Amino acid sequence: MLGSVKRELGFGERINHERPMARHIPYLRHRSDRIIGLESGALVGVIKLNGLFFQTEDQAELNMRSAVQNTMIRSLGSSRYSVWSTLIRRQVDATLEGSFDNEFCAMLDAGYMARLREKRMFSNELYLTVVQSRPHTVLGAGETLKKALERLFGRAADQQHGQDVADLEEVIERILQDLSKYGARALGIAHRAVTEDPVAGTDKPAPLKPYSEPCEFFNSILTCGLPSRMRLPRMGIRNYIGTARLHFNRRSVMAQAATKAGDRYGAILSIKEYPPFSEPGMLDGLLKVNQEFVLTQSFTLADRPIAQERISRLQRQLGASDEAGSSVEDDIDFALDSLLNQEAVFGTHHFSLLCLARELEGLGKSVSELGACLTDKNITWLREDLNLEAAFWAQLPGNHSYVARKSMLSSGNFSGLSSMHNFAIGQSEGLHWKTPISILETNSQTPYWFNFHQRDVGHFLVTGPTGSGKTVALSFLLAQAMRVQPCPRAVFFDKDRAAEIFIRAVGGTYEVLTPGRPTGFNPLQIENDGPNRGFLLKLIKTMIGPGGRDDLSQEDEDCLERALLRLMVEPKHARTLSQFSSLLVGGSRSNANDLNARLRSWIDGDKAWLFNAAEDVLSFEGNRTFGFDMTHILSNEAMRTPALMYLYHRLDALLDGTPVMFFMDEGWRLLMDDTFSAFIVDKMKTIRRFNGIVGFGTQSAADIVRAKASRTLIEQAPTHIHFPNPRADEASYKESFGLTAKEFAFLKTTAPETRTFLIKHGTDSVIAKLDLSGMPGLIKVLSGRKANLEEFDALRAEFGDEPKNWLSRFCGSENLL
């Protein structure tokens, strides 16, 4: 711009005084997909981590992981390397989109998500950046000279640069392996669909465009934590990143974004005096503070002779001072021994905590709360003023020249200060059912994206005593699952009618299997094909048990098979147990315990109510949710197993590849039965292949453990949900379910009123909370308390089965639907 033009502009004079941000940004360009080149010739690679889910890990595990980090840093082995850890805690809008066909599910979701939006929820993003500098110490002079001579005698500079990139790539791969438990992933060039740029005039999906993940990370630091997607730049990175205008004064910085909502105000805290010792997770308290921040730490390795000389000099100084013979001198001796024994390396450490607020008035509170966390760990801190701007630029990995406050620490100290701990957040993308089921709160104010599935397996187990909130939580999750498209169908095998109100509220059908009251079931009227005939033969053998197949002679088995083949060719209305019994006459030797005698109780005896209907009315057509109350037959083996076998066989009609959910309350009783246990374990494999999931609920983990198929069941269920249980037995939870001491202590000592529970999902272990306060009417629908059932029965008797006629009155709101 011409100077004469500037003078004519309203802010022309101010333009002359603007300092470009690029002067303070060291990054030039991508040297490879994952490596960034710096102006100084250094290289950086950025790793993003989910973190170590420390909340429920035993201390021994945390100590071991800290030792692994220490070893990882020691393995770098050269002052060329420095490690920068960055923790960005930002406020997020915890909301989950989804459409619901059912009015009650939509209303429940709207109310729950509205309450989540009212709360401040945060995400914690962890990054580890490895910086490979050019040799710059006395010890590195020889290497520098060697490289200069190589270039002088014809070795191309780009060959050397290529080797440097390869060396750093190798270091990155090694760190990814060491931190695999942390969910480590190297950032690089990512190809993403540009949804706002579809191919014009066609149905083709949007093309994939390259984005730079390292640039997005660097830009988040410069915008005080505000995330943004950044395309792979064609210009230099230093001129590309930095999408907010920065304003510095003596005690604070403002990042002015494109809109007011993106503005951030910040103040930086630094360490004035370090604590006397460090420990794994010593700064984990920051992960629970109700504030946004950016925490940056760096550790630049010192060559061993230099570190040894500095420690020895300090040792001599202490020996000549009043501290001689004190614990301080012992600590120095220990540090020197650690260095000489190669148990640790030493280097320079720098620390900055950028406290953030969205309004200037809130910055003081942010500084106070975050500073209190440092004080609790015996860290003496100060708020930067004259050094504020330098401290801000020093947050950028590789910006060594801006670091003003640094101290020599060991790699073990750094592992304690930067433990890379975090809370599990679940998974929100790349899911088997495309969308998360729901969002749950954690006690760190972070959202947890809940899913049943790990890859394509979605079976789950739920444990919790009466009154723990198990029924409410389970009904809530099933209601939330209705956001999946296509909408799942659900079948609930219930006990004590706990889920009846919910099932009828979503328009489902519900049947109570009561001895003496005909069910309308007739298995013999299913379609006549090979698999069905094989099932019917197995069912009849179970019915005439008690041993099923084991106590039948070959003659009896042949007789049953012949009679079944003859019956199944008859019209459906002619296929009854009475007719089947008549076909058995003369087929085997008659006696008091022959096949006819065994079958008699199912025809006109005490079991006739279950399967002797003239017409089979069981159907899974025309509805999406079904419930069967099994209370009266759960303890009756003779009735329980055949009933469940028939229901589960008929449920095959639902297995067409669309999502389907089955849940069995008090399912442990069924697993105690050898016949049904083998049947359901095999059925779970079939259900999984056809996009279905099976859940088992019980009051105690010991109930499941006692079942013969417990090991198979536990292994096939990637999701375990445990509610607090003061009577929890250690052997079942810790040995069979693999809970840690901390996880078991949570279940044993937590009051049910907290409405918290433990979720174990793959590698995730998180204490979640379901807060439905403010929705008492909806909670009544999800709960199966006796008083609620009595009120529900009275309303149904008066207004009928249609939810629109009774639900509003039941919830206490005439305008509910």
From TrEMBL:
Keyword ATP-binding among UniProt keywords: yes
Q: Which GO terms describe its molecular function?
A: ATP binding
The answer to whether UniProt assigns keyword Nucleotide-binding to this entry is yes
Q: Which keywords does this chain's UniProt record carry?
A: ATP-binding, Nucleotide-binding
Please report the stretch or stretches of sequence annotated as the CagE TrbE VirB component of type IV transporter system central domain. Answer: 211-405
Q: Which Gene3D superfamilies match?
A: P-loop containing nucleotide triphosphate hydrolases (3.40.50.300)
Sorted alphabetically, which PANTHER family does this protein's record hold? TYPE IV SECRETION SYSTEM PROTEIN CAGE, UNCHARACTERIZED PROTEIN YJGR-RELATED
- What family, per the record? Belongs to the TrbE/VirB4 family.
The name this protein goes by in its record: VirB4 family type IV secretion/conjugal transfer ATPase
- Origin organism is Aliirhizobium smilacinae
